[in-house]
Design a protein that fits this description.
Helix content: 40-55%
Structural class: alpha+beta
Radius of gyration: 38 Å
Distance between the termini: 71 Å
Number of domains: 4
Strand content: 15-25%
Number of strands: 23
Largest sheet: 7 strands, mixed
Number of helices: 27
Shape: elongated
């Protein structure tokens, strides 16, 4: 055993140190030759003849040294090492060729690695929760299969009756989530709030760096004045105070006790409708559901659950199907024809972005194929010039496999250098991409080089090295040594001409495919951006206000502030009109209500008239440019003391009244007062420029059934953004100096943000297609340049025989 280990160590040392023959062995050989030489001298030979006879008798000392070395090294590794040394020498000798190949590979591999890093961060990287694959989202499934938010009473029943989950929790969706005000207008800020049930963080498996989770008894009205801070809020707002737990903070003029601080890696968006972290929640408070437990017609919750040990998603869904059927039987008015759907949380998060990212990864893969074809063409041209060298190697006894090993070693060396450069390029590109990602790819904002990215780069470098290294192997070693040595340079390269031409055609074909795809995407994006949104975007400034409940406890006090603010703004020069709303178009905030129409027979149990519900003030339609089609819009006189009214959109008028005039008809939603339809306005694409318009009803903000404490102000102005924002802040401060004004943006910015994802895809695909076209053009140029160089002698003969430059050009292009 020891002898084997010593032998292994000797071979490893010999391979690494590359000693052709140690001094002892060389001395021994020289001593043998010297002794034989002396013996021949004693026999009467001259010194020169004796030395020659001694060497002849002793044998080939070089062969003996090589045989001995084979016993001291690993022959396979030794041949690879020799090929690497030779490959390095050849690349140093042909620096132009090496630079062209490395740059081409770096661009192709770098682009692939950059897009993979985005896919890795969004699709492959686990969510920052404990065992995220065991977390599911629960939804109310409508009769048509659509998934919707959950009513509070339904959530409580699910939580109490199900046995397939180790925990279930709810979070109020962003349309109803609170905002908290800290301080006054000049020094305060708005904190985005999240309302959750007490088990929310335990279901996710979230770590706390300070403090604890909510207690179950704190999830009740009167006991819920406790708060948990996000890591960013703790550091930026509270100076990373490690004694913050137990301290009292003031939110909306009310006292809350801080009980915990979340870890830095926790992410959960304040827009929880699709469980994507679009914007971070700053502070979390208990949901305190008790007053709402009997409500089954208000769908305001998103529900998550963790599968119990040894329970599969399919088993949990089977239990939910039974539970849904029971609830439909017990509560037919609200749950008839409804089911319960369980969807994997990781799958839900990536559902909308998986296909676009896979499309981009496929497109950049085609760019890599073009890069491989380019380098293969370069190697083919070089291989044609090295045919004589290969023939000599064959004549000296090299096998086809040995030649293939040498050529593949050169290819893999190029791929390794190109892959390294590509990885560094990808790091730079991902840094630039991070600041231009659309909101639904925000998980990739912190992407950085990691082990998975490095392994991906190494894998595609190896694959590309083998792929473009296969081309020069075609025909290598098939021709006899003597025949190869007799061939001319042009004839020797002819065996590769069809392959070079085929690669050039393939490159251009792939580039054209990418260009067509990019062109279609540009056309689609152009059409999307030219869709009529139903409102005016130029000259519109918006901002969000926060009305503290302690100073504005009900709709009357809120309405008084809003009337005074609108009157103040309207009196300012440069402000043409102003209005308020709760759900700004394209903001991602939404709400819907069922309603009944006066004079019509009741609908079957479980079926409803549905419309989107949007509070708005007098002047809102005029400010944002929603056209009034008939009737009138809201007036300052539309208050709680006047008859309650509503304005509907054209889609609602067509769907529920057909050709009849809805003006003067009455409707009611929930337990609300009967409202009279006073006007019909144009349709607005609230959910996105690519979305369909849906039935919508607008109600005066003072007559809204909910207290709208975070309205959005809309101003139509001829002033620039900075001047208009200053006028708005002054107007608010003149009424309430403690009210912050934030989220100031123009409608043009909002529209631009709504198409961020398709714009990102279009720009990336267009960049890749142009890169592919440039690379394919360079590849074709390289092929044509090589062919022209090979035919220089022929062209010279043609010119000497009277051919013009035009004739030669037509010959080449033809």
């Amino acid at each position: 055993m020891i002898r084997r280990l010593l032998k292994l160590w000797t071979r490893i040392r010999g391979t690494v140190r590359n000693e052709p023959c140690d001094m002892e062995f060389q001395t021994e050989i020289e001593e043998h030759v010297r002794l034989l030489t002396q013996r021949y001298r004693r026999q009467g030979m001259t010194a020169e003849a004796a030395l020659l006879a001694a060497r002849r008798q002793f044998g080939n000392t070089t062969l003996l040294a090589e045989d001995r070395r084979d016993m001291q090294v690993f022959p396979a590794l030794e041949s690879v090492r020799a090929d690497l040394i030779y490959a390095v020498r050849m690349l140093r000798k042909n620096q132009g060729f090496a630079a062209a190949a490395v740059v081409t590979l770096a661009v192709g591999i770098g682009a692939n690695t950059a897009i993979f890093s985005v896919c890795n961060a969004v699709l492959l990287k686990p969510l920052p929760y404990a065992e995220p694959s065991r977390i599911v989202t629960l939804w109310e499934r409508q009769r048509d299969g659509a998934l919707g938010s959950v009513a509070p009473a339904n959530f409580v029943d699910w939580r109490d009756a199900s046995r397939s989950f180790s925990g279930m929790a709810a979070v109020r969706e962003s349309s109803f989530a609170p905002d908290f005000i800290v301080g006054g207008q000049r020094e305060a800020s708005r904190l985005a709030g999240g309302q959750i049930s007490s088990s929310f963080f335990s279901v996710l498996g979230v770590r706390f760096i300070l403090g604890r989770n909510f207690l179950s008894e704190e999830d009740w009205p009167g006991q819920n004045r406790v708060a948990i801070l996000s890591y960013a809020t703790w550091r930026e707002r509270f100076g990373a105070d490690r004694d913050i737990v137990g301290k009292t903070i003031t939110l909306n003029d009310e006292s809350y006790t801080v009980v915990g601080v979340l870890s830095a890696d926790f992410q959960f968006g304040s827009t929880a409708a699709d469980f994507q972290a679009r914007s971070q929640v700053d502070i979390w408070v208990p949901l305190a559901l008790d007053p709402q437990r009997l409500q089954r017609n208000s769908h305001t919750l998103q529900v998550i659950a963790r599968l119990a040990p040894d329970v599969t998603l399919a088993q949990a869904q089977a239990e939910l199907d039974v539970l849904g059927a029971n609830m439909a039987r017990l509560y037919p008015r609200n749950n008839r024809d409804k089911g319960i759907a369980a969807v994997s949380l990781p799958g839900r998060v990536t559902a909308t972005v998986r296909a676009p990212l896979e499309m981009l990864l496929g497109a950049v893969g085609l760019v890599l194929l073009i890069a491989c074809a380019n380098v293969a063409n370069l190697l083919l041209s070089r291989a044609a010039a090295r045919q004589t060298e290969m023939a000599v190697r064959v004549a000296l006894g090299a096998s086809r496999g040995r030649l293939a090993q040498q050529l593949l070693t050169e290819s893999l060396l190029l791929a390794a250098i190109g892959g390294t450069a590509g990885f560094l390029l990808a790091l730079a590109v991902t840094g630039a991409l991070a600041s231009h990602l659309p909101p639904d790819l925000s998980r990739a904002a912190g992407m950085a080089g990691d082990t998975r990215m490095l392994v991906f780069t190494a894998a595609i470098s190896l694959a590309t090295g083998i792929l473009f290294g296969l081309g020069p192997l075609v025909g290598t070693g098939r021709t006899g040594a003597g025949e190869s040595l007799k061939q001319s340079h042009r004839v020797a390269g002819a065996s590769h001409s069809h392959l070079r031409n085929g690669l050039a055609v393939a490159q251009m074909s792939i580039a054209i495919i990418l260009l067509i795809g990019a062109g279609l995407m540009v056309k689609s994006f152009w059409a999307l951006t030219h869709v009529a949104p139903g409102f005016r975007s130029d000259g519109i400034l918006t901002a969000r206000l926060s009305l503290a409940r302690s100073r504005y406890p009900d709709n009357r006090t809120i309405a008084a502030f809003e009337r005074e603010l609108l009157a103040t703004l309207s009196a300012k020069p440069g402000v043409q009109s102003a209005g308020l709303t709760t759900y700004l178009p394209l903001s991602g905030l939404d709400n819907g209500w069922s309603f009944v129409i006066e004079g019509r027979p009741p609908l079957p149990v479980g079926t409803y008239n549905m419309a989107k519900y949007r509070p708005a003030s007098a002047g809102y339609f005029e400010a944002i440019g929603i056209p009034l089609l008939r009737g009138r819009s809201f007036a300052p006189a539309d208050t709680t003391d006047s008859p309650w009214v509503t304005v509907i959109n054209d889609s609602m008028a067509r769907e529920y009244w057909g050709g009849q005039d809805p003006i003067g008809r009455r409707l009611q939603f929930g337990s609300d007062t009967w409202r009279t339809v006073i006007g019909v306005v144009g349709d607005v694409r609230h959910e996105g420029l690519d979305g369909e318009t849906k039935p919508e009803m607008y109600v005066p903000m003072e007559e809204s059934p909910n207290t709208e404490s975070s309205p959005t102000i809309v101003i139509h102005t001829a002033l620039d953004t900075g001047a208009a924002a200053a006028e708005l802040r002054d107007a608010v401060a003149a009424i309430d100096q403690h009210m912050p004004v934030d989220q100031i943006q123009t409608m043009e910015q909002l529209v631009s943000g709504s198409v961020a994802q398709p714009r990102f895809r279009m720009v990336i695909l267009a960049a890749f297609s142009m890169l592919a076209l440039v690379m394919a053009s360079i590849g074709i140029y390289a092929v044509m340049n090589y062919l022209v160089i090979q035919r220089t002698r022929e062209f010279g003969i043609r010119v000497s025989m009277g051919a013009t430059r035009g004739d030669v050009l037509r010959l080449v292009l033809g």
